[in-house]
Amino acid sequence: MLSDAKRKELATKLYDINAFKFGDFKMKVGINSPVYFDLRVIVSHPDVMDTLADMLQEFIVDNKLNTSGTHLCGVPYTALPVATLISIKANKPMLIRRKEQKKYGTKKLVEGKFDAGDKCLIIEDVVTSGSSILETVDDLRSEGLVVTDAIVVVDREQGGAQNTEERGVRMHSLFTLSYLMQVMLETKRVEESTVKAVAKYIEACQIRSDGSFVKNGTTVVNELSRTRMSFETRADLAKCPLAKDLLKLMAAKKTTLCLAADMTNSEDILNLADAVGPYICLLKTHCDIVSDFSEQFVRSLQSLARQHNFLLMEDRKFADIGNTVAQQYAGGLHRIADWADLVTVHALPGQGILKGLKSAITLERPLASRGVFLLAEMSTEGALTDEKYSSATMKIATEMDTDFVAGIVCQSKDLVAPPGLLQLTPGVKLEEGVDGLGQLYDSPERVVKERGADICVVGRGILSSKTPSETARIYRDRLWEAYQERIGAEEKNGAGN
C-alpha cells in the first residue's frame, strides 16, 4: 500500500523542481488560475520521474487496475514518458495515441499491437475538465479498445472526475489539488492565505465538459469558454472531429476567412479558388447555380483544397424531412456528400434532418470527414429566425448529434457558448452598409470582436475586386488581427493546463 509519507515526499519534490507554481495564470480552459502545474519539467529530473513512475505503478496495483492483458496509454504529450517508464517497470504493453492522424504510411491514429476488445488504462498528468482524457478515450474506443479507468498525477478538482465518469471512465488521482496545498502548508512552502485562495478558486470554478461552469449548483455560461480562447485550445474541446480539424487548420494557417464563391461558371470558381486559396480556411459554394457543374469540376476543386489547405462547404441550406435530405445530400446531379466537407442546414425540421443526413454517411465518406453548420440566424433585414428559433437550434447542436455539428451560422456571440463549436458569420465587408436586397454588412473588426465570429464569410467584397488575391490577403490579415485582439495577449502567450 502506498504510504502517505511517500506521497508527501514526492509532493515536496515536485514543488522544489518548480513543477507547480503560484500567481495568475491563463489556463487551457480559458480562465485564470492562482496555481499552475507544469509536469513537463520532470523529464529534466530523472530521479523524480523514476520515483513518480514507481509510485504510479504501486498506485495502479493498490487500485486493482493491474489486470492481465491491459495496455497502457499516456495522454500526449506530457504523460508519454511516465507511461513509458511504467510500461517497462510493470512489463505492460503500451500504446501511443497520436494527436493527429498520420497522412502517410499506415495512417494510424493509435500505434502499437492490440486487438478489438482489449483493455487499455490511460495515464495522464494533470486534469482540469478531463477533456484531454476524453479525447484519448474517443480515439481508443474508435479502434475497438475498452477504456474504463484513468490514472492521473494531479486532479485539480474542477469537474474532471465527474465529466469522465459521465462517459464511463473512472478517474483515480495520485494527488488532488487540495491535498497538495495542505502538504505545502505543512512544509511551510506556502502561506495559509494562498491555501484559502486556491480553495475558493476550486469552489468557484467547477468546469463541465462543454466549457461551462457550475457554481453553487447553477450552470453558468462563461464567455471565456469560446470568444477568449485560442483555436488550438478549443480544438481539444471539440466533439465534432471535423470541427477539431478546422480549428487546427485555422490556427496553423492563421486565417478565419471563408470565401463565398457565388459564381455560375466552374472555370471562374476554380481560378478564384487557386488565387485566394492561400488566404482562406473555407471555400463556400452554391453548386446549384453552377451552370456547367461536373464531376471533373469537383475533382479539380478538391485538388485545389488539398494544395492550398482549405475545406469545402456547400451552402445548400437543407430544410426538408430526413428521407428527402438524405437523397439530396448523397444523390442527384451534385452528389454533395461525396465532396463537400461541410454543409449548411436549417434546424426548422428538427433533429430528423441531422439523422437523415447522417444516414447518407458511408465507409467512402466517413462521419469523421463530414460535418454541418446549423443555421440559427440570418444576416438579412426582417429575417424570421427569432430568439426562440435560435435557442431551439442551439439545443439541437449541443444535445443531439454533437459529433456531426461543427458549428452555428449566426450573428450573435452570446448564442454560441460551447468552445468546441464554431460560429460562422456572413455579411463581412471592409466597409459596413446594406445592399439593395437587404443584405447587411459589418466590418471585419466588428464581426470578430463584437459579434463573436470565428469564421467570417466574404463574397462580393472579394469577387468584385480587380485583384481578388490581394483583397483576400487584406481580409485575412484584418480578420486575424481582430481575432488576436479578441483572445488577448495573455491567451496568445499564456500557458495551458
TrEMBL record:
GO terms for molecular function: orotate phosphoribosyltransferase activity; orotidine-5'-phosphate decarboxylase activity. Substrate binds at D262, K284, S379, Q439, G459, R460. Gene3D superfamilies: 3.40.50.2020, Aldolase class I. Pathway: Pyrimidine metabolism; UMP biosynthesis via de novo pathway; UMP from orotate: step 2/2; Pyrimidine metabolism; UMP biosynthesis via de novo pathway; UMP from orotate: step 1/2. Its EC number is 2.4.2.10, 4.1.1.23. CDD domains: OMP_decarboxylase_like (cd04725), PRTases_typeI (cd06223). Residues 256-475 form the Orotidine 5'-phosphate decarboxylase domain. The keyword Iron-sulfur does not apply. GO terms for biological process: 'de novo' pyrimidine nucleobase biosynthetic process; 'de novo' UMP biosynthetic process. The active site is at D315 (for ompdecase activity), K317 (for ompdecase activity), D320 (for ompdecase activity). Keywords: Decarboxylase, Glycosyltransferase, Lyase, Multifunctional enzyme, Pyrimidine biosynthesis, Transferase. It holds the Pfam family OMPdecase. The keyword Glycosyltransferase applies. HAMAP family: PyrE. In the C-terminal section; belongs to the OMP decarboxylase family. This is Uridine 5'-monophosphate synthase. It comes from Anopheles melas.
